Amino acid sequence: MFPRKGRRNGSRSDSKARKPAKSPDIRQESDAERGAAKHEAGGFSFTYLKALHRQNAVESFRRLIQAPVSTLLNCLMIGVAFALPALMYLLIANLQVLGNGWEGNPRISVYLDADLNRSQIANIRAEIANDPDVDSIAYISPDEGLQEFQQKTDMQGVVNALGFNPLPGVIEVLPIPGLTYEEMDGLAERYQNVSGILESKLDREWVQRLQSIVDLLDQFALLLSLLLGITVILAIGNTVRLGIESRRDEIKVIKLVGGTDGFVMLPFLYAGVWYGLGGALLAYLVSWAVLLGLMSNVLELAGLYGSSFAPKGPGISVLLTLIFSGIVLGVAGAAVSCQRHIRNIDMT
Predict the structure, then answer these.
(1) Is residue 61 one of the residues assigned to a domain?
(2) Residue environment code for 307-339, b if the CB has 16+ CB neighbours within 10 A, otherwise e
(3) Is the same domain home to 140 and 237?
(4) What is the pTM of this model?
(5) Strand partners, 171
(6) Residue 311: DSSP 8-state
(7) Within a 10 A sphere around the Cβ of 267, how many other Cβ atoms?
(8) Average pLDDT over residues 4-22
(9) Which parts of the sequence are annotated with region: Disordered (predicted)?
């Protein structure tokens, strides 16, 4: 019995010895094949998603141009809503340019000591003119100031009765454009400590009035933009809702065969993108049309005041802002409408 058992054990050991072992090359090859298969699957899914988005974008655009009248009216409504804050921004920008170039610019009046001689006055004028925050200066001598005062007030008899000229020499300082009220106030205080200067006064009333107008317009433009942004979201959402209702049966079929809500929402989201983009481009054209319509009257008014002011039109930054806002608000409006109506479609 023992020899038979030994032969059985020997056959098992021989079969194990004869069994071919896995070579390292075969293992590496199978790993490489699996990696290639995974890479191919990942590339296929990315290609599929890219093709899916392209197809939905083209299809949604095709549906819009098949109804040109309604699409144009919706885009025009959105464009008018975008054009109002854009025109407000242009108004603020042109007011700032007009204020910087107008003769009523904020100035600093520097009153000199009457005991200064010509060389000392020249030194003070040179020091102020070399200030980097100063655009230009104008010196008004005591005699010139007295002559202007007599012309405006008709008080020559009173001045003659005094027997001397009570007015000091004045340097009118025009700061560079773009300085804030605080910076101009600091510039006036800087001259207050210069030897030979009695007083330096900033035309505070003009600066405060101009700053208040600009701040008020900025706040109004921001509030108007928020309100009209909500209006655009509601308008696009209502338009997308009508599109969902018209394709209700198609959406039911897609859901029955396993289509997800995200898959169903995709063409409507692209419709919101197209509506927002179309409205932004129309808003840009409306802004230019309004500006060109007022150009002749503005130039005529500026000519009457002897000014070379030319209105500033909407540039590339305004166009990019409109496009970005249109796309974002379009997607937001479409997403809100889809979330409310697509999920509530009854499948029975």
Answers:
(1) yes
(2) eebebeebeeebbebbbebbbbbbbbbbbbbbe
(3) no
(4) 0.57
(5) 110, 139
(6) P
(7) 21
(8) 45
(9) 1-34
